[in-house]
Amino acid sequence: MKRHQVVWSEPARPDVLRIVDYIASDASLNAERILDRLEARAATLDQCPDRGRVVPELHVEGITTIRELIEGPWRIVYESDGKTVTVIGVFDSRRHLQSILMERFLQM
Q1: Is the distance from CB of 86 to CB of 104 less than 8 angstroms?
Q2: Which of 50, 87, 96, 101 could be stapled to 12 by a disulfide with Cβ–Cβ 3.0 to 4.6 Å?
Q3: DSSP for residue 93
Q4: 3-state percent helix, strand, coil for the chain, nearest multiple of 5
Q5: Where does 1-108 show beta strands of DSSP type E?
Q6: What range does the domain containing 65 cover?
Q7: Residue 39 is part of a domain; what is its CATH number?
Q8: Minimal CA–CA distance to 80: which of 44, 56, 37, 35?
Q9: What is the number of structural domains in the chain?
Q10: Per residue in 18-70, pLDDT tens?
């Protein structure tokens, strides 16, 4: 089975660190487990990156190359070019993702 390289974009790593910092303010052990869960879930993209669904909020805008994996309540948003999977961001699923992603893409 072909393996893909999984990399984190510059904005994605701070997304995860913000989540961990927020959780750590109440429970540091839980924050470490969340970090491990998110990183492990993203690492699974090395084997079959097309298994994630196309991000619905972007699909309605005609963007079909951006996919996501759910690691509740977070959404790991990524793009694959066939060799490399780039994690674009990790977002709380309770937030309005379309606005967050469109703002991020405009900054890139």
Answers
A1: no
A2: 87
A3: T
A4: 45, 25, 30
A5: 5-8, 53-54, 66-71, 74-80, 84-92
A6: 5-107
A7: 3.30.2310.20
A8: 44
A9: 1
A10: 888 888 888 777 888 889 999 999 999 999 889 899 998 888 888 899 999 99
